[in-house]
Batch of 3 targets.
Target 1
Amino acid sequence: MIRPSVKGQRLVALFLLGCLLFNYPLLNLFTNSGVVFGIPLLYVYVFGVWAALIGLMALVVQKRGD
Amino acid sequence: MLTGGLIILASFAYVGLLFGIAYYGDKRADAGRSIIANPYIYALSLAVYCTSWTFYGSVGRAATTGIGFLPIYLGPTLMAALWWYVMLKIIRISKANRITSIADFIASRYGKSQTLGGLVTVIAVVGIVPYIALQLKAISTSFSIIRRYPEVAMPPDLHRAPLFLGDNTFYIAMLLAAFTILFGTRHLDATERHEGLVAAVAFESLVKLLAFITVGVFVTFVMFDGFADLFDRAAATPQISQLLVVSAEVGDYVTWASLTFLSMAAIMFLPRQFQVAVVENVDERHLNKAIWLFPLYLLAINIFVLPIALGGLMHFSNAGIDADTFVLTLPISQHQAWLALIAFIGGLSAATGMVIVETIALSTMVCNDLVMPALLRMKWLRLNERVDLSGLLLGIRRGAIVVILVLGYLYFALAGEAYALVSIGLISFSAVAQFAPAIIGGIYWKGATRLGAVCGLAAGFAVWTYTLLLPSFAKSGWLPMSFLTQGIFGIDLLRPQQLFGLTGFADTTHCLFWSMLANIGCYIGVSLLWRPGATEHSQATLFVDALKYGGAATTGSKFWRGSASVDDLRGLLGRFLGPERAREALSAYARSHGVEFKQDATADPGLVHYAESLLTGTIGSASARIMIASVVDEEPLDIDEVMHIIDEASQVLAYSRQLEQKSRELESATNELRNANQRLQELDRLKDDFISTVTHELRTPLTSIRAFSEILNDNPDLDGAQRSRFLGIVIKESERLTRLINQVLDLAKIESGNAEWHTGEIDMREVIEDAVTATSQLFKENNVQLELKLPDSVPVIAADRDRLMQVMLNLLSNAAKFCTGDGRGRVTITLASLRDALQVDVQDNGIGISEADQKVIFEKFRQVGDTLTAKPQGTGLGLPICRQIIGHFGGRLWVSSRLGAGATFSFTIPLAQPRAERPEAAPAARTA
């Protein structure tokens, strides 16, 4: 199977990005009691980043051509 | 309405459905139409990661730590991004080497070591036992809660119940053991793949997801008015509102990070994850979709965790309801009987999926890496002589399943009460994390050795036992509390959960730090201190370079040297696989390799390797190694030979590159030589021709001089007129001889570069006019008209005047010679300025030169016409000399002609390079 390394590298980059976004100190910026649409900011942040990360991973993996 | 009978009936109906799916899956697999061969089933089967821990425990965790339950799912999400490299490599290695468990993987990597395989198995079993206890606790608790419907009450302290037969949980454990045996060990398979089981697990993943989301939607949108309302009301309650933020303490973030790390290790190295992700993998391309589908599953199953936890906390405020049971107790409190049943089935689904896959994976390890190697060592059992061992293998595995579940039950009964679900699970995760250095190091670092892996694993496991497992017994009252508070033997520094005085960390983080320090430290340190053995080296290369070689199956055999008979191998395979399967396997090999096994045939290394990998699938790599060694007359390779083999490939590559280079050089040298040789031969031929021609040319005038001299000598009485005519001929021939010799010398000088050149600035017009004057007599004699077309001025050229004169005279005399002498002969000289040269054309309307002759007239002694019959009109050296002269000045001499239509000889002479300090007047004149 063809496994262009650029996909692998993009996935590693996403891994590193995820490690960064899900940890101190960035996580700490969202621990205040702010509310978005009635939902606590922290909750929105974690699930939002999580969903975005999965979306990007899907994009990288499913992208054809390179 | 939810009687115990109905619940049990529903549970059995559900398990029956699972059996149906598994049965169907196996049938389809046997028919070659796999239902699990697609990425969605693969991703769903990976979700066996979500157990009762997720289904019940996450809510409990969320109820105490807010979003602290999430790292367990964020870790796998992040890890999935690395699967592209790591998981793919593990899958490739495992398929190439027929590895069927994590113990086998590690043992195989470090030289097919039995010690290591056994150690990994022990760590896995001991480490996983709490995890299985967690599932038992979840099932047992949820059953006793739903049984009391519609009453919402916590079960009585299960701790008090008598062990074993007096305890419901024991029966649950035994039922699970029975299911697992039916699911997983109905028959032996060399690849340990269970298609039906995977189908059932994927189905269970769907059931638990839908059940959890159903409860979540009910709590969020029925009991409360959507997310906003729920969070709003939670924020209004002081104790609950603090769950919505992460406390800013450093320790919390350290816990967060260490849990993320633990779950990353768990998703790779939990025996059941290895089973579904690697062993049961049908096609490595399924990994592509699983990379994002599996995290998506995790996201989906976690969305409602916090809402259910908050809803439960608000609903049951201070009612003494364990948060681990909210998923079940909330529907019960609302008298939603069906919803409660759905939740119960979901929880059951999560627990059974985990228990079945985990115990199958563990039983394979126990059988292949612990029991079989031990049994095979006991010579008095004479296992080597048994005809068919497949029954024994199945028996061992079934026994292992029962033992593991009994151990799980015991842990639950002894220590289960002291902990929440998640805390029990984390004990297991910490144990499994010990595999990470040996595996990750093993597939990326060739220098890692068996001893390093053994020391690292043993050290990590010891620390884990001391800092996490034993304290869990102490907290349950099975060890004295003083063990925790004062340390072992009362040594304060050795307090298990503040080891060496390290405080401020959660239990798991504390254990993770010390165990990883010991594990990685020993692993790297020992690996670097001692050199690996030969087998280790070859295995290390196979594993680390797995992606490079595109699978190790083809390269494995090259590390083996020895001889065995096909019959012996067939007998050996027959004992473990059954005679029928062994025969099939061997004929499959014969077919695919195009060989035929005759009587008493000797097995080639490829076949021995094939047999070993078949056995590896059934009894593990270490045992397979021993069994193969028992029938094979093996010559052990020493380390240098292995290194040699490993180096061979690269050396061969380098050699062949050098060879290629050399042969290319050789080829070009040969070509040059051949060309040079051809030139030499040509020159040699030319020299011979030249000498013979020169001799011939010299002889003609000499003969004629001698003939006429003899006539004069022999006839003294010849009359005066006759005598003077003959003397005239002698003089003329002598002149011709002189001219010939001069020209030969001239040409030789020019060709050898010894000629003298007096280069000066020359006006070409003058040269032409002088040449015309010099030859005017000749033209008159031949009755040929001469016409000049000269421009008023031309740029000067740098050349030797006399030589140019020589060329002009030669061309003019030629032109005069070949024109007809009847008065119609006409020669035209044209001088023209080109961009950077002058061109002189000498055009005649004489007999012309045929195209074939045009090619040769510039060669020496080639005169047009037959020189043997007709009297030669020149020396045959004029034009060659002219061409040499013009060539010397950097110009070109050529002819264009048609037979019967005259000829035009043209030459060019490049202009003199204008000099900066003395601008030429001529170019200006030319433009004027």
Target 2
Amino acid sequence: MKLVEAIIKPFKLDEVKDALNEIGIEGITVSEVKGFGRQKGHTELYRGAEYVVDFIPKVKLEIAVSDELVAKVVESIQNTAKTGRIGDGKIFVIGLEEAVRIRTGETGGEAI
Amino acid sequence: MKLKHSLIVVMLTLFTALVGVSAMAEEKKDAAPAAAVATEAPKAPEAAAPAAAPVAAPAAAAPATPPDVKPVLNTGDTAWMLVSSALVLLMIPGLALFYGGMVRQKNVLSTMMHSFVAMGIVGVQWAVIGYSLAFAPDMGGMGLIGNFSKFMLNGLIVMKDAASGTVEWTLFQNYTKEPGAIPELVFAMYQAMFAMITVALISGAMAERVKFSAYCLFVLLWTTLVYDPLAHWVWMTEGWLFKKGALDFAGGTVVHLSSGISALVFLAFLGKRHGFPNERMAPHNLPLTLLGVGLLWFGWFGFNAGSAIVGVNTSDAAGGLAGLAFATTTIAPAAAGLSWMIAEWIHSGKPSALGFGSGVVAGLVVITPAAGFVQPGAALIMGVAAGLVCYGGILLKAKLKYDDSLDAFGVHGIGGTFGAIITGVFATVGATGLLAGNAKQLMIQLIAVLAAGAYAVVVTLIITFILDKTIGLRVEKEDEIMGLDQTQHSESGYNM
């Protein structure tokens, strides 16, 4: 099992979600996050006062997947979240030790 | 801080000197042949002063002056003034939203409260003593302040028969040659709203760091010692600036210039917000601010078009003059919003919503003294100029790094002064300005601006100095960082 963590541009969320549905992913956790990478922040100007906004809003997806699906999921996210411009985000794949479905107590691959 | 203090001192001496000189110059002119004054009387605005009329009448041998007529209640005028009063009141919540949206989230309630509490304090002050100081007959005959005869709005209702409760309403007749009048109570309440909003305007400079108790005392003292006398000078027929013929249709000098310049004085003592200008202090909710702009503009129709009640040589409140003021109050802010937006677009790359909204307010401020004196074309030019001038004022602040949090001085001080002066340029309706060949009017406007500005500076300086030395103006640094909502009011604006 792996945990796929993807940081993407917020407006791409729906597209990515649909693409993941198509390949059979049944659960995603989404959070609104802020951060910066090579894109850096931007400046805002209020009545002549300039402020640098260091952190830009992004969306973080967390998807627990079985080993055989990992490559497909990563590829799917990479294709749909891509705009080709700076700030498209990152995908991390992390090893996942255990999963438990709270309602039934199922564990491992059954639980995801 | 030291720099601010010396700046204020320099400004002060400059102002007082200028006022002294100009007042002396005027005095000489006034002492010139009385016959000249008499012939001038029919067209000059000072002829509208009922107080001046009895004095002038024997000298001029009353050639063509129509006789005074008894006031008669006009229900149409009264209806419009009731509505106007309510419209002006609505500007204060509008101002609360306008300012509230521009501060940080932790100070939204305290900032809005500054406007709201002004409604409370001045509402009471006005009924008790404010109206009397501003609009009661002159105390001492100098045209400086009203006497105490209208204490507690005394005399506005005349009791005819206490047993049956029969009363008679005292009428307010603006121009003694025309009968149209409204109940003086309505006039008093209309003026109450002006007093409330004027002091609330100043709060924009103090936002995010002023101690609430100090602010409340400031509201009471400033309204009593600065606003009430200024209203008497400019709007009361016995006031010295009114007699000089200073034009201020709806309060460019009394309201905007006085509050804007007082804000600057207060700032000199108050100092910058902690972390200014490095920390991010961006507006937390600009939609609130834009809603505020909308309410201000809406209410401003009462502010300006309602002020036809004190227009020269007319007693009509709801008539052509109100219509003109309504038109200029539509045109000037529209043009000013655009000119600010375009200036910002060219200068800094993007047309911002805050910029457009600020431009609208700047246009409203600038057209206020001129609303019923200029034609629509002039209003358009004044509006365009308002946006550009006030945008320049804001940029100046960013350069000089003084911390006028919400630009009370940048918009109201600069806009109010600019508007009061150029009213003397563009006036053509009921009065004449420079473009109509009356250079003297521009001179009178300058005197009014300098006198009102100097008076507001000196008295605000004294009030602020005393408050600073006694209870202190600022909250503790820790409280400021925590936010005024928490530390001054034990509340927070958003619990979501």
Target 3
Amino acid sequence: MSASVLAIALAPALAPAPSALLAASGAATTCHHVQLSDLAALAQVLWQFLSLSLFSLGGGNTLLAEYHHISVEQFCWLTDSQFADLYALAEAAPGPSSMIVGLLGLGAGWKEGLPWALLSAYGAEIAVLLPSTLLMVLACLRWRTLEHSPWRIAFERGLGPITLGILFAVGVKIVRTADVTRAGQLSVPGVIVSGIVCLLMLRTRVSPLVFMALAGGLGLLGIINR
Amino acid sequence: MASDDAGTALESGSTAPVPGLAELFIGMLQVALSAFGGGLSAWSQRIVVEQRRWMTNEQFLTGLTVARLFPGPNQINMAVYIGTSFRGLPGACVALAGMLLVPFTLLMALGVAYFHLHELPAIDRLLAGVVAAAAGMALSMGFRILDQYRNDRVALALAGAVFLAMEVLHWRLVPVVLISAPLAMAWYWPRQQVR
């Protein structure tokens, strides 16, 4: 607790700079925390993830902006910086990074104690995987007829550019969520590091874990802060 | 699918007998454990095709195509493909469980540690840095697939419109996809002699 209080106390010392960009995403948060031990609330939360499942185009990362909307803006389970932390955790940990949904579920139920947190974590992860898994099973069984269908060709070609647009929007969203001070202002060193890492991800084959470790060092030194 | 290949398997000297549910689970668990530190799809190819010889390389690559085409995380869809190919829906569930059980448990442990510790000043400062790198990774996702659309103006316009709808108009993903997908599919509908 003391850390965030300290950060909030120190933050206004920074210049009230490019916050105009952030206003739309940061300010309009008027949500109520949902008690997940109320089963109806839990069901509503699971429904959110169930209904998003079939929209996870291009490998699942297209859903990140929606995950942010649900967990920060709609149900306020998490703050912006907690969401960014969990995204980094899911990226750094071994296994598919789409397991971030489990972490969001964990955060959603955290205030109600560990059993509920784990229940909502497993529930959310299963909910987001179930519909796409069922569709994938159907697709595998019917692939021979699907393979040369015009629907498949149009779907593959048409959804590509849409995925491209979504991924850019998601990237900008994550940057605006991650590189922000507690006062809601863009952290310039953070944005610079994000830009450099983005470039290096595209130009080199260095493991992202290396970049995360180096940037973590910059954070410890106080060069990147929030 | 595997039964069709029984005849050709002898010639190419490749595929092993169809794996049972327990074998599927253990195989996927092996993939998950080998892939600690990354390279999940490379490991699954190595284990499923080369080591256990459940599929030919061609079947595996078909799976990758399907996994990328359909909604859902690619690596998870790949596990579903492998499971379904041999044992239908139960196979898919078992393969998924094998692939996710260990990483997900580990991630939950990390998550619990995070929620206990994230307010410590040192952890918070460390994460402030790590998060900037992670955001850079997120930003690179779009650029990674940008190249293939360089000469397709319609695709770029479509991507730009989708970006603006989400970023400037703050539309949610579902309406964006429901409106743009039919338009895009109509534009890219294969005309006459494709193939």
